[in-house]
Amino acid sequence: MDRTKRQITKIAREVQNYVRISMKIQGVGSGECDILHLVRKNPGISPAAVSQTLMMDKAAIAKRAANLEAKGFLRREADKHDRRKQHLFATEKCEEIKNSRTELEAGFYSWLLEDIPEEQSVQFITVLEKLYEKSKAESRAGFPHLIQD
Fold first, then answer.
1. What is the pTM of this model?
2. Residue 19: which CATH number?
């Protein structure tokens, strides 16, 4: 039986809904957020690589990248060796959106914890940090507990 009742997942989903709506107000759709995140983490990535990584149709990626470029979040550069190939880069405006998203999430979590007594909040955050470290270590190791002999 799941003792957590998946509450962490449910809270994270609500945070993402809040961020999604806030980002939409700033002119960035949810599908566009994924592209911006990937390009920010992989400067110079090709639209084809974005398509493969996000498992999206190349035409959809091309359309969204063009929209993001028109909005000033991305810039394209032609490959120096093959002018037919393009590379995508995040702009300063994209970096501002990343910071905005982080601030939105932090603000939501602060609001969520504001009615929790300090002592309980400290204990809760300590437990969350332990859970995060354990999950991150497992992820970095490639989830070995899932591999069956």
1. 0.71
2. 1.10.10.10
